[in-house]
Amino acid sequence: MLEAVEEVFPEAKCQRCTVRFCRNVFSVTPRSKVKLVARMLKAIHARESKKAAREKAESVAEELRTMTLSEAAKKVEAGVEETLTYCGFPGEHWTRIRTSNVMERLNREIRRRTRVVGCFPDGNSALMPVCARLRHTAGAQWGNKKYMNMKHLEDASIAG
């Protein structure tokens, strides 16, 4: 999918969800050390600049190696850069674009509504409850809430 996005939108920036990144690292971490590793990974994304986050990621990877968690260190080194795309945007947007929680919540709600039906006779009948849910969301308080203040993008240039 990322290749298709790059082909259609060559200047688009892709942000990997930080929560998914952490879960991937936890998949190769022993249960007894997950809390410690979670604190280390949170420290990466708590930095005030991309450079500082990169430096922290390097130190976390090195510390994971000393803890004999070389697979976790490899995952941190391989995936951390994808999770730092948000650092190129205004700081006011960081908390909103680091994760994909909003989209996941909406997808979970649609899935919950469509599972009740079970089997749809055709594509149009499947679209009806999905569109109804999206229409409700767009018209409700959640849909009217301003998610990000775009004025910050006008004031700052987006760095790569």
Give the fraction of residues assigned to helices: 55-70%
Strand count, sense and closure of the main sheet? none
Unreliable stretches, pLDDT < 50, 5 or more residues? Answer: none
Number of helices: 10
- What gap, in angstroms, lies between the N and C termini? 21 Å
How many structural domains can be distinguished in the coordinates?
Answer: 2
What is the residue-averaged pLDDT? 82
Backbone shape: globular
Number of DSSP strand runs = 0
Order of helices and strands: HHHHHHHHHH
Cα Rg:
19 Å
Helix-strand makeup class:
mainly alpha
The percentage of residues in β strands lies in under 5%
What does this structure look like?
The chain is globular. It has 160 residues and is an all-alpha fold. The protein has helices at 2-8, 18-26, 34-45, 50-66, 70-79, 94-97, 101-117, 123-139, 141-144, 151-155. The longest helix has 17 residues, at 50-66. It is 64% helix and 0% strand. The protein contains 10 helices and no strands. It folds into 2 domains: 2-89, no CATH class; 101-155, no CATH class.
Summarize this structure as a short list of keywords or feature phrases.
mainly alpha, single chain, 160 residues, 2 domains
Brief digest:
This protein is mostly helical and 160 residues long.
Explain the layout of strands and helices:
Blueprint: H1 2-8, H2 18-26, H3 34-45, H4 50-66, H5 70-79, H6 94-97, H7 101-117, H8 123-139, H9 141-144, H10 151-155
Helix pairs in contact: 2-5, 3-4, 4-5, 7-8
